[in-house]
Amino acid sequence: MNKKTIITILLALVAMAGQAKEKAIVWEQPTTEFGTSYGDGFFYLALDVTKVELKADETVVYITAQERSDYPDYTFQFAGDTYLKVGEQRYTITSADNIELNKFVQTNKNGQRDMAFHFPPLPKGTKVFDFIEGDGDRAFQIKGIKPVEERWKQLFPSYWRDNNGDWKIAFFEDCAIYDCKFWNYKQRDVNQKTGEAIILMTNGNDELKVMVGKDKKGQRPIQIGSDKKVYSMITTRFLPDYPTKDTREGFVDTGYKEDTITVVGWIKDMPEQFKQLKTFDFGYENIYTDEHQSVSADLDEQGRFIAKIPVLNSTEFFIDWERCFVRTMFEPGKTYFMLYDFKEGRRYFMGDDCRLQNELFKYPLDWKSIRMEDGDKDFNKYIASVDSLLKVQGAVINQLCEEHPTLSTRFNIFRKGNTLMQQARDFGQSRFRGPNFQLPDNARRYAYDNFWTKMKKPYTLHRDIGSFLNDYLDDVIRRREFNFSYSYIDHLPEIAADEQELNLLNRWKDWIADAQKKVDAAATDEERHQIADKLNADNAEMIEQVNKILNGSRFNRMMDSKLLFAQMKEQVQVLDSLGADQFIKDLWLARGIYKEIDNRRTAMLPEVIDTLKTMVSNPVCIAMVEKQNDYYLAIENREFDKLVLKSSDNLADLSEGEALLKKILEPYKGKFVLLDIWGTWCSPCKEALSHSTEEYARLKDYDIQYLYLANRSPQTAWENVIKEYNVSGPNVAHYNLPAEQQAAIEHHLNIHSWPTYKLFDRNGNLLDLSVDARNLEGLARLLEQMKQKTVMYK
Predict the structure, then answer these.
(1) Tens digits of residue pLDDT in 527-554
(2) Is residue 186 within 8 Å of 202, Cβ to Cβ?
(3) d(Cα 260, Cα 266) in Å, to the nearest integer?
(4) Domain ranges of the chain
(5) DSSP string of 649-715?
(6) How far, CA to CA in Å, does 459 sit from each of 113, 271, 422, 581?
(7) What CATH class does 25-150 carry?
(8) 313, 288, 254, 287: which is closest to 590 by C-alpha?
(9) pTM score, two decimals?
């Protein structure tokens, strides 16, 4: 081997040694920003860059995809032209681990997928780069990826948590956040060399001095007022796991008294496509009425808001469903600050005892439940699948808590309770797949053992408890045989509206007794029939007057009241047999009366409310029913234009649907007629009628006659709905036909659902068009087209 060869080998060995010494630069948990392109995946996945390796021969970016919702079988992909961007230079992907590029995939069973993306090496000294998932319209973009050490150097913006793990303060260029409030800067002195700062902040008349010390690997001493502590910078999208475990098990329980939750918030760096949404919405369930409620807070130009939310107890919330898509729970009497940052993807809660809210941000609730599908009748199979799901989900939550041992006990309880009650809701609905729309015995036992006895208090804690209670208790109560008999002849003073009616009814009662004796004394059936016919004929006027009373609103209300009393007593017995506590009994009885008032749209007789008060101890329940009852009592006493109520006297001789409809439409020749077939018992019908004023204003230019036909609607309830929603005007007509005539018209028009709308032309001809008055803009366009055609043919 000659000298030249030896030198060449030595040089090669030196070079190799040099390469061996050149270690990869690793960024652990780098900080990131999201870009300005927001695809669907942004809402359903959290994409976190967990590590970056800057090697001599390649760059590796490690990303974890975390499910953020329960959208069924949600899939995502990374494009084959994914690239890193440093300045204006692109570095296109070479390969990927644990994901096939250009192919849709799902997360694993634990809701995560860990992936590694390989790129060409980035220039030496790179301090920041962007991850761009191709150039498609809805591509993921993660911008500003840089080592966490770079973040430690900056104070504006920065977020800080205390040793307990709570987010306590944040500094931005134009404001600060502390104590759930926005603070303006009155004075801000920063030492550019050391990074120390003296900040004077104001909020209204309040003034606060903050002194920030030097950075020590992401920690700084910060004195807020007189309170000095060491705080750690928050660099992750979600608050890191708390340092110690909170072993509390309970939730605030007010005893279901009215209280308030305050939420201050900032929807930071909102994308343009969401800026047309001017409010921030909080949705939750009112367990008393079994109705959905919502509170909206106005957003200012910066995306800030303050919401005051009336609640009864600790409550699950669905927050800003069109934009932020958050599910969490709040406890009464508390104030929270919620940050939702679109640019950096940060999601934090601040406030007294907001640990659970932060844990739910980072490890969100699943929507995992099984519904019994149409046509499925195998309850044994359904029960087995439900039981399996609950066990699997319980194990998933336990595993999550084992992997993150400081997750609070309340987090474990709340997550499991939420899964349980979601399944309880769907299990309750399965009764509509059973015989006679009831649960079979094995399903009812399963519901009792696994849902009813395991409901967590307070009962407002999970949204789906109310739905389950409604289905389960209704199913159990319907199983009980219920016999009701009532002799109204013994209660004539309650039936009579005044002294004159009472005298008439007493005279009729005496006549009934005397007539019965005469009929019974007859020797044969033929003779008995003859006597009865003569007695009825001789007293026809009195009988007609009594029938009017017995078919009137007051009598029907009284009979309904007696029935309600009997039902309430029966229901209490059933609830006692199930071991229901007093609140459940109060809730069920009050909710029943509330719904009766709402369905009938008429006030209850005073004795119903008085009886309820003797059976229900919860004052909020009583107040809820009284408020609803007073509302309809006031409507009943309200005057209105009865000219819109049309008599059916001129239709008495007609029975065919076509002839009836033709006669009703006759006065409106020369106008378009919009027919609305509805009923006082029909909730969608009443919801549509509640927008009548808006409808009349929108369609005022089309010369429409509004014609309403009520299906099976009691007179008082019918009038009350018309008054309540102001379904009135010079071009409005209401008919409440006898049941046979209404049925004939509906049969003629082939109507099987309510509300149903039909449109007739100016000659009274039915138009073969799909019409829905609830879609005002669509109806307006249709009428405009018809109006233009009419003008053309004139």
Answers:
(1) 999 999 999 999 999 998 988 888 877 7
(2) yes
(3) 20
(4) 25-150, 153-233, 259-362, 379-479, 488-551, 555-636, 642-793
(5) GGGTT---HHHHHHHHHGGGTTSEEEEEEE-TT-HHHHHHHTTHHHHHHHTGGG-EEEEEEESS--H
(6) 35, 37, 13, 11
(7) mainly beta
(8) 288
(9) 0.82
